[in-house]
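Researcher: Next sequence.
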Amino acid sequence: QMLFPSPPPAAKPLQCSRHSDLGPGVRFFAMCSGWRAAMRLTFFVVTLPHNVWVSAAQMCFPDGVPEEKRKHIVLNDVTMPVGVWRLEWDSADLAHELVLLLLREELGYHAVQSGSSDSTKYGVLALGGCFLTKNATTQCNKSNVVTHHIMLEEWAYNAYSTDWFVQNLPERTPDMLGSIGYDGQEELYVRQSELDAGLKLDGSHMNFYGDYNASWKEPWRVFDNHLDIPVSVLRPCNLTDMSNTVEMSSVRNLFDDPGGFDAKGLAKCTDGYWWLAPACRSNPRQCVPYVDGGSGGWMITEVMQRAIKYNLPLAIAVSASWGDYVKNPELYRMLFYSWVPALHHLHLHPHQMLFPIYDPDAQSEGDGTSAKSRVPLRKLVNADLKVAAPDVHQMVSNLQIPLKSIEDLMLEYSRVGDYAKAVCAWARNNTDVWKQWVPNPTECGQGQGLVDSAGVFVQERASASGCVSCRDGSYSKVLRDELGSTRTCSPCGVGQNQPMWGAADCVPCEVGHYQSEGGQSTCLRCERGTYADKRGSDACEPCPAGKTTEGNGFSSLTDCKCPPGTYKNEVAGSCIACGTGAICKGFGGAPEAKIGYQLFEVSPDGLSIFTCFADPLRCPGGPLGTCAAGRDGIACASCEIDKVHSEKGECEDCGTSGSGPFAAAVVVVCGSLSTLYFLMRRQDRARQSTTILMLTVMFSQNISAVQMMGICGQMSVQWLDPIRQVLQFLKVFALDIEVLRMSCVATLSTLELYLIKLFTIPLGTLYLVANHVVYVTIWGQKRFREHRPALVGSVGVLFMAMFITMCMAILSPVQCNLHPNRKWTLVQYEDQECWNGGEHTSMIVVGCLWLAMPVGSIAAVVRLMRIFPQRISAGDVQFLNTYSFLFSRIKPETRWFTLVFLLRNLFVALVPSIPNAIWQIIVIQCLFAISVGLTLCFKPWRLPASNALEVFSQVCILALVSFSAFFIRETEVQNVAELALVVVVVCLAAFPAGGLFMIWRRVRPRHKPYQWFLCHHKSTSGAFARLLKISILESNQSRSGSVFLDSDNLSDLSTLFRYVKDDTKTLIVLATPGVLLSPWCLGEITTAFLGKVMALPVQFVEFVLPDEEFIINLKSTISWDRLSENGISSAHLEDALRWFGGLRGVSVPAVFGQLALTEVTNGVVGTVSKAGTSFSSSMNGPVSTGGRTARMRPTNIILVDITNREAVAAALILVKLLTPLLAHDARQIPSILEPDDQVDEMLALVISKVSGTRTTAPTQELRLNLILLCTTGCFAGDYFLLNLLYCACLVVESVVPMVASEDFQFPTEAFYTKLEASVAALCLSAGAVEKPKLLTAFVKSIFEKIFSRFSTMSNIETLELQTKMIWRNIAQARCRLSESAMTEEDLVVVCKITSEHSTTASGALDNRNPTPTASQRLAVEESEYSDSADDLKSI
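Model: Next structure:
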């Protein structure tokens, strides 16, 4: 009987996933995802030895091409190996392995397995460079680089054949190279053993369906009964297609079997596993078992249809798994599903069941009772493989493997277990088969050319050894010889190109392209400015001068047009540059203005472009003459008639408001001026509070800052919103009346607007005069001269406040902006051109005349500054009140700063006149930087907060000006570059200049700025150092500033030693015990020693010169941090101290006073006292030697602890600082109270008290002001208490207590207890009645006062300020503390104590001249008061 192919079954849904397109050879992989993964892993493990074997480069053929001599293919300019896509079933694996072997060892190519799949659809897509995504859509790579080139055994009915490529990517459609040599077939199969048993039994052919008809045959006798097969190897019916209504409908609809299906249309399985055909349903023992495979049964529906139609006694079931599917036919006699070629049942020698011939029409209608069709297994290759490797393409095309050969290969594989070994064994034994597939190496196909053994292209067959694809830039040319036709590779000529490898011919260059060299892969596009109007051009033609093309690759002369940045001048017919502010798209487009510019005119000479400086929104850009709505004129600066400026650069109708803003502004200004006048009338500096002064200064500073910010708005800078709107508003403070909608009031010319602006301040002045006249006439009794300060002050405030605005207004005719068309327009009147005659000339003339106002203002200020000192000295308070707008806010010593402010404001007002924005920014930054520096240095304002506010406002303006650099529309790069060059040159030159200066300072005879440097220990000689400096500066041979004292002259502690070494001639060391324990003092002495600076010790009594033991032990006593930082070592210090111990100096006596100070000063300075002048033995200054009491009685005395040298020095400093303040009244100069001053006064006071008579002279001289200088421990000294007792007896007008010691502690109860004990001891030692409370009340009344601070450690400026405050306290004190509050008995006790202790006190002061004793002084008093002799005698 003839065997014919039968059609494939309809697609079967699978349990785990649906794979309707799978070939039968891979259906077992699709049972479920678990089996798929398991089988892939199995495939990897099985093929691993093969991969290792191949990688070890084991050759199969002895004469095969070795690895190192194999070649690659070139596909789309990419070099790669030949890629073989492997299908994952046995027959396909063996076929692919055979092709890989031949490609590598026979044709000499690098060949690899480039991919694999268990479905042919993935391979088909891979050959075209495509793949399936997760959502089953097809995607393809864009590079056209495909690394998969060959796939074998593609089942022809596959749903993903080449049809998809034909419809979507025809250029990538894989080539079909025909059948592989055998077909695929799926069908029911029977083992050879059952076939033999049937023939032996009754001659039945068990592979023929007719011998299974139960009507005349008994086939069940050859097979096992289905009930003997365990259900464990079967799948329940409800998990197969027998429970699928769609699948079962194809059976029920075509064939009548009511007993085989239930009401739902599902197959009835008797035991849940087997469906019995009608032929054996009544007798299950007569059923022939048929077991299918897959998750649902691959041929379930077809077998059920056949069983019903052909009366076949079949029991139908499905294997539980792939393993059961493979094992069941081995274990049981049954019919089973399989296909060829396949390895898994090959050892059973299966025979295909024969059914009626394949009926395609019936199959299309779902009738599967005819035989399955045979399926061609095809070869597919990449579409470009024929060009890239024609010999590979030819070999695959020739490949024909007989079915017997593939079955032999599978059996060999089952024996050796390795694909490569099985293929190698077969290839060695079947050379005659595969040799027919390999093409002749010198028969080059289309796209190839002959090459020799070195791979070099040759032009004749005799020297050739093979063929390769022609490279790009060449073509495959036919060569005919005695052996037939072949091909060689020849280069393309000029004007031609070939971008592809393996091309049959060359292509002429298209128009717009050229190629001037032969053998090129591409033609070049004509460069910009050239064109090619013919195909095959070897060069491009240039465009006419001044014209170009829009890009590359143009093909006509008409494509040559004006380039971007130029436009075609219709008159001249040439291309002209657009210039700044214009957009010329070129290539025939009309010129347009950029945003912020106005295209005013197009002329034969070019474009006339104006820049909209103040508001770029006025010029929206666009064609000729375009302005914002409602605008016209130059730079769109003017509004149309009855329109006014609005936001977004447009002009809007005036509307009903009309002149409202202007009228409101007039009212506000008039009200402000009237308020100003009346405020100036009420101003009284003597009564003005600090708050009012601060508010006044803040207001004036705010006005100045606002005007300066308005100047920033006048700069040539394109500000953006929102800062632009703010600066536009601030223009009102620059008298820009357009902000007040002036155009709605009247239509004015530029000159008229300018004149109105100039007359604004004079009109304000006239309005102030009118206010003054009205007020003085009505309320001021017509005393115009008396009330003049209010008028002058208000006018002055107006001029000072509006000085910047006034200067800006006057200078506006010279403030011009330069436009791209090289024309100038005014900054504040942008529709008015500069320097073109007409109104601008008139404005220049008027402005020159009005310059007299700011110049005259500055001249008046200079004159007032000059006469200020004389007027103040004369006590002219009215002058100060009249010009308080100049002097009330500024400190007197920095009154010249008003002129600095005026000059700064004048120069700032000149800034907009500079035509370059960069230089405007630089100049204004320099002006404000200088102003900030001067303000920080001199602090001119009276209030510290005003200085801080001034600096803050100027820094803010500096920041604003700095930010303006970002808004410069078109930076003049050349100017910036020149400025940067200057900065770099100055910076680089500073270093060598500094070095040369230092060298010059080193070599030149240098004058040291300090004649003396006072080295002292602050706690033991700080006040003495200050006093010595003052005394030296008072000497005749000294000059101001020549004495260095750290509290006055040192600003940086790290430079202290440098002052000693470089700037000092003589180091004066105040040698107290603490000086050799201070690291700083030791450093100064060592620096003087190392720097060879002269040193002079001023040695105090308690000072002991350093001996060797002291010098050696000193380094472990002091801190070395500061000394080591300055490079001073212990050796340096020891040498310096030995040097210092040998110096001769000046000695200071134990009891210190003015005489001792003079002697020390003379010793330091080297001068002597003038002839005829001596120094008293007192603490105070020189007296005449002509009389007994030549010294004038002072009204102010200083009480100090005379045993404390630092306290006495502080008192002398106070005297010296008060002396210049009291030069007009010598009696006011304070005098230090001394012990021997007490006796004379006390005797006179006692005599007057006891006798009851009060003489005029003594009592008048006893009315004094006491300055109590409190230092640490002063109340514990006898001398201090004696003087304090004396002062308690006097008629003291006031007491001014002062603290001159940092650690002075104010009295407590314990203090008063000790004070009373000390007073009692004085009384006891003098033999007087004990009066311990003599001083208690007096001292308590003193300490109820507010103490003044007098710190001698401060700098001289602070000391002078403290001195002024002390004198103010003295001058303002009016409260008399006592008028001899003591009783007569108290006075007698005090007198006795004073008399007893005066001799002791005088003897202790060894630095004084001989003075009269107390008895001698008493005799003098007795002669002067002879009327009280009896009283004296009783005393």
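Model: Residues 571 and 1140 are 99 Å apart (CA to CA). The chain has 46 helices and 48 strands.
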